[in-house]
Amino acid sequence: MATPKVSTVKTLVEKPGLTHIPPTYAFQTRSASDQEIPSNEAAGEPEGPIPIVDFSLLTSGTPDQRSTIIQDLRNICQDWGCFMVINHGVDESLLNKILDGCREFFDLEDKEEKKEYEGKKILDTICYGTSTDGPPSEALFWRDYLRVRVHPEFHSPRKPAGFSEVLAAFSEGVRGVVRDLLGGISESLGLESSHIYRALDVESSLQLFVANFYPPCPQPELALGLPSHTDPGLLTLLMQNGINGLQLQRKGKWINANIISGAFFVQIDDHLEVFTNGKYKSVTHRAVVNNKSTRISIAVVNGPSLDTVVSPELELLGNGSHTAAYAEMKYKDYLELRYKKSLNGNSTLNHIKI
Ligand SMILES: O=C(O)CCC(=O)C(=O)O
Ligand SMILES: [Fe+2]
C-alpha cells in the first residue's frame, strides 16, 4: 500500500494564522507510556545536573587524571547512561557550519532537492521526512528530519552548496571523539582500551547523521517532537542550536537535558547495553517542543558495522558465572526490526532480551 503523503511541520507552521495543532498531532492519541508524564510537567533535575566529562583529560591528561576520568565514566555510565562532553576538540566553527547547513537544507523549496529523498527506508542512504521514521502511524510528531548515512561510505545531499564538505568534516570529527570515548568506556569495564573498537568493528561503523527540525508549535503542551525511545547504535552524540527540548527518563521521571553550548550530549545506545550485558543501559529519551523558537538538533548515531553480530561480551560475563541476558543479533537485522515498528515506547531491545 502506498504511504499517504503527509505535509511537513515546516509547511504547516508557514500557513498564516495557525493557532491550534491538527488533531493528529495531539498528545491524547499517544500511548499510555507517554501520557503518564505530560510533556512539561514533572520535568526537572531531581538528581542534580547531568554529568560533564572533560574529554581533554581522557586524551591528554596525566595518568592520574586519566584514571580518575575512567572511574568517573564507569560511575556515570552505570548511574546515568549519558553525559555532556566538553573540550572535545571538534572546532566550534564546524559545529556552527553544520547547524547552518541543516537549517539551509530545511529551508530549500520542497519541490527541489528535498523531494528526491522523501519516504526512504532506514537503510537507504539519504532520507528526508516528517514525524518519526518508522511505519506511518495515526499519531504524528512535531518534527521534520534529514537522515544520512555518512560512514562507512559517505553520502550527502547535493544542496545546500558546500554542505557535503562540512558534513564530511563534522562526521569525521565525531568519529574521532567516539573512538576515544569507546576507549575510555572499554577501560571503565576493565577491558583493553581498543577492545570495543576491535570487537564491534567500529572502524567500519555505520554512522547515521540525523538532523531534527522542530518549528514553533502553537500548543506545545499537546504535541511531542519525538516520542519516548532509545537509539540503536553504541553511542549517540547530540548537539543543538542553543534551544533545549531533549528529555531523559531517569528514576521514573522525565528530566530536561539542558545542553551546554558547544558540548556534545552523549547517550549510551542499545548495542552498548547488549555488549555490557545490561551493565550500562541505553537511555530512554524524547523531544518536547516549544511555541517560541525553531529547535534544530543533530544526533549522530554511531554503531558497530552493519555486519557485526553483537552479543554480550564473554569477558564481562565473568567466565560463565553470569548468563547472557540478550540474544545475539546482526546490527543490520536489528535496525530492520526496529524500523518495522513504530517508535513509540517499546524498545527493540525487548525482542532480544532473554
Ligand atoms: O532532538 C532531540 O533532542 C532528540 C533527537 C533524537 O532522539 C534522535 O534523533 O534520535
Ligand atoms: Fe534518539
TrEMBL record:
Extract the GO molecular function terms from the UniProt entry: metal ion binding; oxidoreductase activity
What keyword terms does UniProt attach to this protein? Iron, Metal-binding, Oxidoreductase
**Alphabetical list of SUPFAM superfamilies matching this protein:** Clavaminate synthase-like
InterPro entries, per database record = DIOX_N, IPNS-like_FE2OG_OXY, IPNS-like_sf, Oxoglu/Fe-dep_dioxygenase_dom, Plant_2OG-oxidoreductases
Domain (Fe2OG dioxygenase): give its ranges: 204-304
Q: Entry's Gene3D superfamilies? A: B-lactam Antibiotic, Isopenicillin N Synthase, Chain
One family from Pfam that matches here is 2OG-FeII_Oxy
Signal peptide positions (record): none
What protein family does this chain belong to?
A: Belongs to the iron/ascorbate-dependent oxidoreductase family.
User: Which named protein is this?
Assistant: Protein DMR6-LIKE OXYGENASE 1-like
The organism's lineage is: Eukaryota, Viridiplantae, Streptophyta, Embryophyta, Tracheophyta
